[in-house]
From TrEMBL:
<dbReference type="GO" id="GO:0016787">
    <property type="term" value="F:hydrolase activity"/>
</dbReference>
<feature type="domain" description="Glycosyl hydrolases family 2 sugar binding">
    <location>
        <begin position="53"/>
        <end position="183"/>
    </location>
</feature>
<dbReference type="Pfam" id="PF00703">
    <property type="entry name" value="Glyco_hydro_2"/>
</dbReference>
<dbReference type="InterPro" id="IPR013783">
    <property type="entry name" value="Ig-like_fold"/>
</dbReference>
<comment type="subunit">
    <text>Monomer.</text>
</comment>
<keyword id="KW-0106">Calcium</keyword>
<dbReference type="InterPro" id="IPR050347">
    <property type="entry name" value="Bact_Beta-galactosidase"/>
</dbReference>
<dbReference type="Pfam" id="PF02836">
    <property type="entry name" value="Glyco_hydro_2_C"/>
</dbReference>
<keyword id="KW-0378">Hydrolase</keyword>
<keyword id="KW-0326">Glycosidase</keyword>
<feature type="domain" description="Glycoside hydrolase family 2 catalytic">
    <location>
        <begin position="290"/>
        <end position="411"/>
    </location>
</feature>
<dbReference type="InterPro" id="IPR011013">
    <property type="entry name" value="Gal_mutarotase_sf_dom"/>
</dbReference>
<keyword id="KW-0732">Signal</keyword>
<dbReference type="InterPro" id="IPR017853">
    <property type="entry name" value="GH"/>
</dbReference>
<dbReference type="InterPro" id="IPR006101">
    <property type="entry name" value="Glyco_hydro_2"/>
</dbReference>
<dbReference type="InterPro" id="IPR006102">
    <property type="entry name" value="Ig-like_GH2"/>
</dbReference>
<dbReference type="Pfam" id="PF02837">
    <property type="entry name" value="Glyco_hydro_2_N"/>
</dbReference>
């Protein structure tokens, strides 16, 4: 038994023995994926079928080695009709006799029939909803009781199959959420629905079962230290079992994602003598939600923008079975990306996930299941929406109900959400225009200009920038968010999706994403962070610091904007660090100066300028860092600004080599220029001017066949060798004067490469390529932005530092899941050391600003859709322009300016040459 479960049981038993006014909970299963109980199990079809064995409960039976794996796109008539038969024996204490006893199932996929001691107690359809049955009349007290549950993975109800099985997610069968017995006094509070408003008003609907002796209702508002802050007592209104109560709590601390303040509302029914008959505790948050037509979504009077993500309940090893620990971890992961909202796709999630959203602070769109076709029929749909609302009505985080997804709406019961919800939350049709909102999915960038046919409705896409492998999510987000942030009728949006939904199959022992259907995440299947994670974290930072180049006349001033909704920046903590990377140990930073950055009282949506302290030696630094934390200590972001130019850093780090006086030995052999400097030999082809061969004291370096234009294919017109002052130069000219290359072999051993070229108009990339034998590479250490790669439309989320990573073959979202990926584009190159096998290495310094380093071409995942990218042919490239990447549904040409090809129209640019200056150190010294 887990510690969590043990403490819960002890606590409940103490309450039960102390007072009959408490509810007792007895778990028949475990509490989650990390705490299970074995039951007897029989599966009719598929793996390990047609024999009795054991299964852990709760669990998805496929992940226990039973049945058949099905992704939602598999036609129902192509599937096995597997069913599971569960048996479990438990003892009912004699003390339960005469009490109200109910069994509760938090989730069974999908149809189930329940019997106790061979007597039917109830049945249910719908795989993601909490339900229960009365057991008192079927229980054997003081004896063993046999509970049997028969589960059908494929429902007998066609509409349930349409909503839950024929969808774009994995289908898992079984009792996948906890099962417990709830024991109450005969007369008890069966349910409480609460509407706690920002002004302190508390409206409550209290349902009392078997109301005979109850005379008064007592409501106590307590903090989480159990201190009573207010007490209200009123008569119990007779008549129906449910009555309305209204109270006013003075000066509540309000709930929001930034300040998730909560209270405990303790409801008690008292008899005429004041004896407590029963109590029920509910965690509440005071907040008021308004959807103001043609205006926006307001929470506590502030107009909000959703920085949201769609999320499944999913784990590769456990399927849909989760745990409180996993829920808390997931919500913290979302919060750490500076997100403030989550959409439950496409079904209600576990109660502990909802509680984590309440306690840590996330807005929630709570969804009735349905997917791209008419959803539940009106009978089962009405029943399930009531189960959804009844369970989740009191969560402060829930702002909207979603009636299905992408056309999975049954309009017949749209109005019934409000009928059963005391808070009267608005209903959404994700992907549709409905009432005051329009939530179009996968809109093009141009849609954000407001040129649509719902331009007066509040707009927020409940799915956009559909991730696939390394495409989407962060790629394109900067352009989209710039438009969304400044559009007053846009309430933000929800990216698709949080994690790659890849299951660790028990039959094939592989991670399966069903082709390209499931690897859509911003993190990997085990929440491995991909590059887009950090891009989103920067773009959605609630503190916005304007981009800044640090020049010699820098005065320490930075422009800053408060993009919180409720937080004053004076309550956040900003610190600065001036740091350098000494040449002797480039990976160990030297802090030159650090301290706090004063921030005056800056209200949400206001701008100001902050002043960074500038020590006398600030120009000795190589980077300025600004670190921000919110009032709770959560890291918001770390911004980095290079202080020195690449030319300065190159000169500083090569000064000692330049001072060496090893003469260059020159010869011409078999049509090659050959240069020997100490232990280094450089061979350049006389006809093409390309590097043919390099060796040093440790052997050959597998770099050759460069520089070649990454985007053009012009012919060489001349190659000539000259020598001045001991420096040997090879000058290469190309036809139409489109490119000029100068190799410089210097005394001391450094080899310079200066390239001047004219890029064509409308190109995806430009620069120079080299061949580098991939099978010889072990890793790289570099100064620049990292550690993740970038795309033209995903430049945010990387920071300036000295980074190091080993070679890997990760294909984002598809193979290996070792992050950061080795292959790809890296921005703001200053220098790099390529580590090769057998202890060999070479360095390259970049003297030009804004140059990208490409380390081999990143490979696409299987069936890449619009994430396929055209790259240059080189293995090691130095580029002024790099390609953008699309996403699952959109090519780059519809994703905005940052995704467009480069424009180098000579008619519009006076100086139409690009300059690239590199220095190679082939000596292989550390």
């Amino acid at each position: 038994m887990s510690l969590l479960k043990a403490l819960a049981v002890v606590s409940l038993m103490i309450c039960f023995h102390c007072s009959h006014a408490q509810t007792e909970i007895k778990y028949l299963s475990g509490t989650g994926a990390d705490d299970t109980v074995p039951w007897d199990f029989y599966c009719t079809h598929g793996m390990n079928s047609k024999k009795w064995s054991k299964i852990n409960v709760p669990s998805c039976w496929e992940q226990q080695g039973f049945g058949e794996y099905n992704y939602g796109h598999v036609p129902l008539d192509k599937r096995l009709n597997e069913q599971g038969h569960y048996k479990h024996v438990f003892v009912a204490p004699r003390a339960w006799e005469g009490k109200d006893i109910r069994i509760v199932f938090e989730g069974v996929f999908t149809d189930c029939e329940v019997t106790l001691n061979n007597q039917p107690v109830g049945s249910h359809q719908g795989g993601f909803y909490e339900f229960g049955f009365d057991l008192a009349d079927h229980m054997l007290y003081g004896k063993q009781n046999l509970l049997e549950v028969k589960v059908k993975k494929k429902s007998d109800n066609i509409s349930v199959n349409q909503a839950e099985l024929e969808a774009d997610f994995w289908n898992f069968g079984g009792i996948f959420r906890p099962v417990y017995i709830q024991v109450n006094p005969k007369e008890h509070i069966e349910h409480v629905a609460i509407d706690p408003r920002a002004d302190g008003t508390i409206r409550s609907d209290i349902t009392i079962k078997n109301p005979h002796e109850s005379a008064r209702l007592r409501l106590m508002i307590k903090d989480f230290n159990r201190k009573t802050l207010a007490t209200f007592i009123e008569p119990v209104k007779k008549g129906s079992g449910t009555f309305r109560s209204k109270q006013k709590f003075a000066h509540p601390k309000l709930w929001s994602p930034e300040f998730p303040n909560r209270y405990i509302a303790e409801y008690a029914i008292l008899d005429k003598g004041g004896k407590v008959l029963h109590t029920r505790n509910v965690k509440i948050g005071f907040r008021t939600v308004e959807v103001r037509a043609q205006d926006g979504i307001y929470v506590n009077g502030a107009r909000v923008k959703f920085k949201g993500i769609n999320a499944h309940t999913f784990h590769p090893d456990f399927g849909r079975t989760s745990s409180e620990r996993m829920s808390i971890k997931t919500v913290n992961l979302i919060k750490d990306m500076n997100m403030n909202a989550v959409r439950l796709s496409h079904y209600p999630h576990d109660k502990h996930f909802m509680n984590a959203c309440d306690s840590l602070g996330l807005f929630v769109l709570d969804e009735l299941t349905g997917w791209q076709s008419p959803s539940y029929d009106s009978v089962i749909g009405r029943k399930l929406l009531r189960e959804l609302v009844k369970r989740d009505v009191n969560y402060a985080s829930v702002l909207f109900w979603d009636n299905g997804n992408e056309g999975g709406w049954n309009r017949a019961y749209d109005h019934e959400f409000a009928e059963v919800d005391i808070q009267k939350r608005e209903v959404l049709h994700p992907w549709g225009a409905f009432r005051k909102t329009v939530t179009s999915h996968y809109i093009d960038y141009n849609y954000l200009s407001g040129l649509n046919f719902a331009n007066r409705q509040i707009f927020f896409p409940t799915e956009f920038l559909h991730g696939l492998y390394d495409g989407g999510l962060g790629a394109g987000l900067n352009d989209y968010w710039s438009k969304m942030w400044t559009n007053p009728l846009c309430a933000g949006g929800f990216l698709w999706v949080l994690a790659d939904e890849m299951v660790n199959r028990t039959d094939t022992k592989v991670l399966d994403g069903d082709g390209n259907h499931a690897p859509d995440g911003i993190v990997g299947p085990y929440h491995e962070k991909e590059g887009s994670y950090y891009t989103v974290k920067e773009i959605w930072s609630p503190i916005f610091i304007e981009d800044k180049y640090i020049a010699a006349d820098f005065d320490g001033m930075l422009n800053i904007e408060n993009r919180f909704h409720y937080t004053n920046l004076a309550d956040c903590k900003l610190t600065y660090r001036w740091a350098s990377f000494p040449a002797a140990s480039a990976d160990k930073r030297k802090i030159i100066d650090q301290g706090p950055v004063p921030v005056s009282h800056l209200k949400p949506m206001e701008r100001t300028r902050i002043k960074v302290a500038m020590p006398a030696g600030w120009r000795q630094a190589e980077v300025l860092e600004i670190v921000a934390r919110d009032p709770h200590g959560r890291h918001i972001y770390t911004w980095t600004f290079p202080v020195k130019s690449p030319d300065e850093v190159t000169n500083n780090r090569t000064a000692a080599i330049v001072r060496q006086q090893q003469a260059v030995q020159y010869s011409e052999i078999d049509g090659d220029f050959v240069f020997d400097v100490g232990t280094v030999k450089v061979v350049i082809d006389k006809a093409s001017g390309l590097l043919r061969k390099v060796t040093n004291k440790k052997g050959m370096l597998p770099l050759q066949n460069g520089p070649v234009s990454a985007s053009e294919h012009d012919k060489v017109t001349s190659v000539r060798h000259t020598e001045t002052g001991g420096v040997h130069r090879v000058t290469v000219n190309y036809e139409k004067n489109r490119m000029n290359v100068v190799w410089s072999i210097n005394p001391g051993g450094l080899v310079g490469l200066d390239v001047k070229y004219k890029p064509s108009n409308n190109i995806a990339f430009c620069g120079i390529d080299f061949d580098l034998a991939e099978n010889e590479v072990e890793g790289i250490k570099w100064m620049g932005n990292g550690p993740y790669g970038v795309w033209k439309n995903r430049l945010k989320g990387v920071t300036f530092n000295v980074w190091e990573k080993k070679y890997n073959k990760t294909v984002t979202g598809s193979a290996a899941f070792i992050y950061p990926e080795f292959k790809g584009y890296h921005s703001q190159l200053y220098w790099a050391r390529i580590n090769l096998k057998q202890g060999r290495s070479f360095k390259v310094y970049c003297k030009s600003e804004d140059v990208y380093l490409k380390l081999f071409n990143p490979e696409p995942g299987p069936d890449p859709a619009n994430t396929i990218v055209r790259h240059s042919k080189g293995d090691l490239s130095f580029l002024h322009g790099i390609p953008a990447i699309g996403n699952k549904f959109s090519k780059t040409d519809v994703l905005g300016p940052e995704s467009a090809v480069y424009q180098f129209d000579a008619k519009r640019v006076l100086n139409d040459y690009l300059i690239l200056s590199l220095v190679f150190d082939f000596m292989g010294n550390e």
